[in-house]
Amino acid sequence: MKSNLIAFGFIVALAACQSSAEQSGTQATATETTAVSGQSAVEDNESQKDVVKVAVGSPDHTTLVKAVQAADLVDALSNAGPFTVFAPTNAAFGKLPAGTVDDLLKPENKDKLKAILEHHVMTSALDADFFQDGQSMGMVDGTNVTFHKKGDVLYIGEAKVIGSVRASNGFVHIIDGVIVPN
């Protein structure tokens, strides 16, 4: 009887060790997947949305989301920031010459697309009230843009700011035009 209890205890201990090893393997795989996917893969439905998730949640920014994905900027813009993003609407992209967006989304034009998108981003979190008429500010692409105010309406270059959303890592200012770097 005593040997049966020892054998039973050994089997239970062996099974527990095997289950623990399987769980550890599962956890390592989950960690490896997250590390490869980057910050954008973190699921958090409780906190305030970052600038990428704000755009993803907007039906008016599907073209911008496709462009950010094609330029491999999702993880960069999902990080802590801070960022100020000037987000052209689908209609803003529609104002570009026919075929421009499709051409920019091609893999061979990734660097050009990335430069255009970086011309819409600042590395600071600035509310729309911060900007002054005639103010020139640097963008992530290394060039400057000039802001104008006509009454209470803010413009970045020729694009009108038509709304603003606070994000966890900055601000998203919705604009009605695409800002093309000089």
Which keywords apply here?
182 residues, alpha+beta, FAS1 domain, 7-stranded mixed sheet, 7 helices, disordered N terminus
Write the layout of secondary structure elements.
Elements: H1 2-37, H2 51-56, H3 62-70, H4 74-78, E1 83-88, H5 90-94, H6 100-104, H7 110-118, E2 121-122, E3 136-138, E4 144-150, E5 153-156, E6 159-167, E7 170-175
Parallel strand pairs: 1-7
Antiparallel strand pairs: 1-2, 3-4, 4-5, 5-6, 6-7
Brief account:
This is Fasciclin domain-containing protein. By secondary structure, this protein is an alpha+beta fold. It is built from seven helices and seven strands.
Word description of this protein:
- The protein contains seven helices and seven strands, in the order H-H-H-H-E-H-H-H-E-E-E-E-E-E.
- A seven-stranded mixed sheet has the order 2-1-7-6-5-4-3.
- By secondary structure, the chain is an alpha+beta fold.
- Residues 1-37 have low confidence and may be disordered.
- The chain folds into two domains: 2-37; 48-175, FAS1 domain (Roll).
- The longest helix has 36 residues, at 2-37.
- The chain has helices spanning 2-37, 51-56, 62-70, 74-78, 90-94, 100-104, 110-118; strands at 83-88, 121-122, 136-138, 144-150, 153-156, 159-167, 170-175.
